[in-house]
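Exercise 7. Given the encoded structure of a 138-residue chain, write a plausible sequence.
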């Protein structure tokens, strides 16, 4: 029985006192928001970099001043190949001339942009992870 004479099992389930949530200051919440936004901006920058490199590499064969490697690749030469690197984002044409393999960078994004985007992603992810851990410890 409860204090008012009602049997204990007559109370609806879930009427216990709600669990207290940790109080988060607006400053801490703003910090988490900024770190999340920083990580998202870094990811979008990396994705845009990869997209730009891919498009520029594909369009290089149509260019009037295309390198001989790209022209050979466009003509279907078996000794020419185009591949990409993720970090830093680059499109590279590799072909064999006189028995020696040569690499020609067709398109690339400046290393500063890539490094900045990677730092933003890592800082955002680490900052949010740290924020979550500190909030759980409260």
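Solution.
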């Amino acid at each position: 029985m409860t204090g008012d004479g009602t049997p204990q099992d007559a109370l609806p389930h879930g009427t216990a006192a709600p669990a207290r949530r940790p109080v988060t200051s607006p400053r801490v919440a703003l910090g988490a928001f900024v770190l999340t936004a920083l990580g998202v901006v870094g990811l979008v920058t990396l994705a845009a970099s990869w997209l730009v490199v891919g498009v520029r590499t594909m369009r290089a064969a149509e260019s009037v001043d295309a390198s001989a490697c790209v022209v050979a690749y466009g003509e279907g030469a078996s000794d020419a190949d185009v591949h990409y690197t993720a970090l830093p984002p680059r499109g590279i044409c590799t072909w064999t001339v006189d028995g020696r393999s040569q690499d020609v960078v067709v398109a690339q994004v400046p290393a500063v942009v890539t490094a900045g985007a990677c730092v933003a992603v890592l800082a955002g992810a680490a900052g949010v992870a740290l924020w979550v851990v500190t909030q759980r410890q409260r």
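Remark. The radius of gyration is 28 Å. Students should compare their own answers with the one above.
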